[in-house]
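PT: before anyone asks, these are the final sequences, not the draft ones from last week. 1082 residues across everything. Please model them as a single complex and drop the result in this thread when it's through.
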Amino acid sequence: MTGPARIAGGPAPSLGFSFDGKPYRARPGDTLAAALLANGVNLVARSFKYHRPRGIMAAGVEEPNALVTVGEGARRTPNTRATDVFVYDGLVAVSQNRWPSLRFDIGTLLGLAAPVFASGFYYKTFFGPPKRWMFYEKFIRRAAGLGNPPIEADADRYEHRAAFCDVLVVGSGPAGRVASQNAALAGDRVILVEQDAVPGGSIVRDAGGDVTAIMAAELAALELAGTRVLVRTTASGIWDDGLVTCVEQLAEPGQAAEIAQRLWRIRAKRIVLATGAIERPLTFAGNDRPGVMLSQAARTYVRRFDVLPGCRAVIATNNDDAYLTAFALREAGGTVLAILDTRAAVVSQVVAAAQAYFPVFFDVQDLATEGGLNCLSSVDAMIGSTKRRFAADLLAMSGGFTPVVHLHSQAAGKLDWREDIQAFVPGATLQAITSVGSAAGEVEAIAAMTANLGKPKASFIDFQNDVTAADIDLAWQEGYRSVEHLKRYTTLGMATDQGKTSNMAALTRLAGAAGVAIPQAGLTTFRPPYVPLTLGALAGPDGGGHAAPTRRLALYEHHQRLKPIWQPLGYWHRPRAYPLGRETLAEAALREARAVRNCVGIVDVSTLAKFMVTGPDASAFLEIVCATNVSKLAVGRGRYTFMLREDGMVMDDGTVWRLSDNRYLLTSSTGGAERMEAHLAYVRQVLAPQLRVSVVDSQEHLAGIALAGPQARDVLATLIGTEPPAHMGASEGVIAAVPVQILAASYSGERAFEIYAAGHDAGPVWDALEAAVRARGGCPYGLEALEFLRIEKGHVVVGGEADGRTTAHDLRLEKMVRKAGGFIGASALDRPALSAPDRKQLVGLESLGGDIPEGAMLMETWGSGAEGHVTAAAMRVNMGGSIALGLLNGGRGRSGETLVASSPTRGQHVQVRVVAPHFYDHEGARYRD
Amino acid sequence: MITKARATVTDASVAIAIAPAGDVVVLDCWALMPPDVHGVRALKVEPKRWWIIDGGAAIAAIAQRLGDDGALTPIGGGLLRARLTGPGWRAQLMIGGVFDAEDGGFGPGDCAATIIHHVPVWIDVIADAEAHVYFAASHRADIERLWRLAPAA
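LR: through. Structure below.
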């Protein structure tokens, strides 16, 4: 018998899974790695660059080799560590980065050319001429990456969840559990997170027996004491102020579940890191073969999973801990051929005990392995001056231990160097973070590693990226002195494992080449996440959407019945047009706009910002906010207004209505609603806290419907049974038994009314208006028609013409500015630059050719410098022809000039004539009775 | 199922019902002391702002007492009220949230203005096993999806 196998006895494997299409059995609690080893599978993957056969090296998240694709279809998860997925019934796993099969991989030919693919191969090979990149790209893209992501939309659900605590403990090993218990005893709110499915950390690895049940009982006691315990939860990032993001795996990769993963945002007053340490491989020729495994991993497979990873083992080590592995293997029925210790003769209890059972050799140098695709066949070593060969099928190696300082470092904690363990340990912290146990450096001391390697080109340091000791030497020779440069030149420490097993070996090699101590060689930056996260976990419940709220109109269902084209507008979604039959957007919008010009239409204006301003000082408040006259407004009257920023630029516009002596309604743009709310709060609370005024956001309280067109007055009069208010008048009424506020204002240029009702009651009002409008041949209209109408009328829009850089003068609104001042932005208007004649000013544009492209540059001749731009373009509603509004340098004095509207990105260049920015009913006769 | 030593979050149950908030009126008061609203539920949402919940006929009396010391403005037309009943309401509000609703100090009579999944909400703790959450009606579909509720009719 040779190779890995399940240790005899124990429960029968009850779970079925497959690997590369072949069915296998596993026990509940097996990782995929354990299950594969139990079934005698040593060959699991092909390496990234050279397609070398790779097995299982570790037993945790640090695994660099055994990356597989798990799941099928929309749940296919590539680059999953076989050591970090627990087998479930029906699990489907396939190897990756090989063709046509794992055993026979054409990519192996690349390995034969390994000397060519040294550090910086791409940089040295794929340079110029630029057009050849398109040729190179095909090959580079095909070679890049490992597993393929799914093409289908993610089928899983994800959740984001917050939690708060006094103490967050990361890691449930011995140190973590003690920290949790102490904090709980002190009365703190405690959260304990453990990335494994089974708590216990090193206990689970070393204790054996029914340790899982014991650990579960311990955790139950902790929970009784008030501790929240989250298993299968990895703390992946530490941010400012004690914020820790953790991902909880509620389902294994590829497994269907109600929720696949939960991203916890835990805010902790104090953080205890009991994150343990990662065992390091030794660097020698052939250290990447299947059958070469980390010592503690071998022990884990024996003790936790009842799997013997090899029958004839050699232990290679530079520390005492690996001796424990020899005992574990022996107890499981394996044969330990030798313990090869790189140290000079060591006197310790465990070494002495081992010498009674195993051949122990000290001062071992120049290790090397031989083997086939699926197994190791021998281990060679120089012992003293004698070369010895051991016919082993397992090499368990230990190059020492690297404390997991990732989270400490992410929180900007300093690192201190420990010579005895040849590793960095947590130093000073900027946040309330403490590292304990192995994470704090409580690990075995080791012998310093030697730089003498027999075959550096075959001695791997970064297994995942196929970076050898020779690659690091070459990078050094080529001048890459900084460890950060070395990382990027060689790809060392990149990809899914982020150098968890390779960083220290690389630093040792680099320091050796530089002739400096390891701390002087530098260290790369630790950044979140600690382990790879799915994009689904980050997106949370927004997966498949645009990761932003979608605000629905109160009248959403009423619009939906008409099958509109929906238009995102900020978070809102509004009807853009209501096409009939096979109408295009433009055709539908033109039909709707003509209905308004010639008959009557209704449009949902609920999203307009609306503020109820109430109190004895309401008028004074509005005089501060609005740049126009407000105080003289009579009850029942309204007017157009605009608001300036403190720098004098137009911030927003709308209307202000005096509903009663001390109550006003201020409206402003949809897009600026939140900004205006903040602005009004600033004025009320900071600039004028003495005013007795209440400002209440009523945007959603009042749903709004605009009724516009030559027949609007008649429609409304019929519905309310009385004469509607005159233009810019306000009144109250009842439509469909719903009380409404009627404001006679026109945005379209036609006689029009804005009709407001409480949002929850607005449905019957819409229904009544729609029926009345349709009875007269009119129809509902959307944003596109609204845009046609307002452009033709020459009304500016915030975000278009009022783009944050324009003044009232630029927009030809200066006559409306209150001469007495006293409003925000008034003092800035005195600056001559704000009324300079060459500023960009609002103009109208008529096409002398085809359609005017929106956003086009305005220039005197094609190719000359841009003097302005088109802000909005439309068709004339009834007459045809293309018109636009624009901002043009000195535009107010350039009427009659012919310019070119040029859009190079669309290849459109149209001659336009500069005209006044009003194309329709300049006198406003149509909206006055 | 995933192999675990034990379940990670043992959330208690919660029942959720969402409906128009109905009669909600903002009371802004610039006097030093708020008016007497005894008999009517007043939710303090800002230092000088209360929401009068289901004030009904009492609103007129409050307005009279308020005089020029404040103002009343209805907002219920655009608000929804989610009634969360059952001991699991605290855990429910941690989903997509940023506020510590699980803090035992946050109890009946308390109010928190916070956000849940980007949506501004006001949490009104009614009892140990009941809280009301107010939010703008436009966000209903998002909240229902987040809480995995059947869509509103």
